[in-house]
Structure formats: C-alpha cells, structure tokens
Amino acid sequence: MRTALIALALVAACTGLVAAQNATVPPPPPLPAVVVLPWNERPSGYPLMKLNCSDVLRFKWGSNNRHDVIQTIAPGCSTPEVKEFFEGTGGDVPVYFSYPGNYSFKCGVNRHCPVGRQRVVVGQCPQGPDVLAWTFRRDNSTYAPIIVPCGAKITFFWTGRHDVVQVDKPSCDATVIKNLTEIVQGPYNQTIEFTTPGAHHLLCSVPNHCTVGRMVTTVHVVPSEVCGMPPRKATPPVHKPPPRRAPPSRRLPPRKLAQ
C-alpha cells in the first residue's frame, strides 16, 4: 500500500495536486448542528453568521417567494459566482461546510441582492490546521465549494471507508482524471497540495457515496504569491542623461585706452 501511495503522489505532482499521508490523525469533528436561515430580502442586511465545525446551514423560504442560493468567490453582488445551489419557490437548501473559512452567498433573482441586500457571509470555525471533514451526508446537504490560495495544503480526514478522486466536473457521472488516494477504512487522513489555479473537482468513488451521500466538492484555487501569478516583468533601468556642464566663460581682452 505504501508503494501505491508513493506512486499516486508522483502522478499527482505532475498535474498540480500532490497527495501525502500524514503521520498524525486529526481528532474526529464534533457532531454537526443544523441552523435554519430564513432567506428573504432584508433591507437592514444580514449579519455575519458564525457556525461550528461541520455544521449545516439550511436556506429556507416560502412557496410564495422566488429566490435562489448562489455562492460567490467574495462578498458582494457583482463578484464571480462559484455555484448555484437552487432557484425556485418554496426553497429548502441545506449546505454543508466542511472546511474552515468564510463563505459568501447571495440571491441572484431580480435585484434582491443590490436592493434587498439578500446576501450573507458565513464564517465556519477552524477544526484544526486546514482539515476538511470528508463524510457521507445523510442529511441531503451539499458540500459548499472551497476557495483557497495557490499552494494551500488541505487535509482530508474521514472515519468511514472513503477515497478522494479528481474528476472533470462537479458531478457523480464525471470522468475520472486521477485517483488521489486509495479506498481506505478510517480513521484516515490525506493531505493534498493545490499548486495550479482553477477549479479542482473531487469526489468519493465508493458506490453510492457520491450519488446518495453527496460526497462531491470543488476546490477553487486562486493565484497567490506562492504560485499561479504571472511572472513579474523586470523594470528596465532608467538612463538619466548626464548633467549639462556650463560652457567655459569667455573673457574679453582689456580695451586699450585712446591716446
């Protein structure tokens, strides 16, 4: 198994993802809670929501209102969109937060975001150093995509029987790009380094774990000083002209006095 893991790490290194098993297994996450958020236009604005590790946030609204739930890469109404979870009336959208950090959401229907201020930032508490709780979702919740800087290392931790597979789209019928781990019975953890900007789609390939347990997520890697930034152009040196020297003074010969 050790040889197989080393081979997987070498393959992943060639494509911007590097996997390595940790010597220390993180503690299991606490039991998650479900927090209900009434999702409507709110002229006073939504305050920052703070959740515990591995909690689920349920966006809910009535059958007479039409809204959607869109995750954005940063707070605001005009920032790039990461994922649309649902649009329609009578919404009940459970979102699972597997990784520490801030997550931004908005409603994209009509002018609900800029005028109705229907946007919220969810702060998920840290559960250790960059640990992602990789679990079978029995509550029908969907993993919220993760946004990290290039060069980040994420430790996938699980207690069941899972793996981590990179695929070409965030769907259970996607094509496998490569296996980042083998199927392993937990407790187990695997650290993956993300060294290429862009969207990296990951899922668990154990039967029914994606289709039923919703074990599929996307890691959005943004350029950072570590990697992904275009090389800086060297500033050409500025050549200053030498200072002008004053011309030598010309002395006139003394006048001769008339005799």
Automatic annotation (TrEMBL):
<keyword id="KW-0732">Signal</keyword>
<feature type="domain" description="Phytocyanin">
    <location>
        <begin position="152"/>
        <end position="213"/>
    </location>
</feature>
<dbReference type="InterPro" id="IPR003245">
    <property type="entry name" value="Phytocyanin_dom"/>
</dbReference>
<dbReference type="Pfam" id="PF02298">
    <property type="entry name" value="Cu_bind_like"/>
</dbReference>
<protein>
    <recommendedName>
        <fullName>Phytocyanin domain-containing protein</fullName>
    </recommendedName>
</protein>
<feature type="region of interest" description="Disordered">
    <location>
        <begin position="228"/>
        <end position="259"/>
    </location>
</feature>
<dbReference type="GO" id="GO:0009055">
    <property type="term" value="F:electron transfer activity"/>
</dbReference>
<dbReference type="InterPro" id="IPR008972">
    <property type="entry name" value="Cupredoxin"/>
</dbReference>
<feature type="signal peptide">
    <location>
        <begin position="1"/>
        <end position="20"/>
    </location>
</feature>
<dbReference type="InterPro" id="IPR039391">
    <property type="entry name" value="Phytocyanin-like"/>
</dbReference>
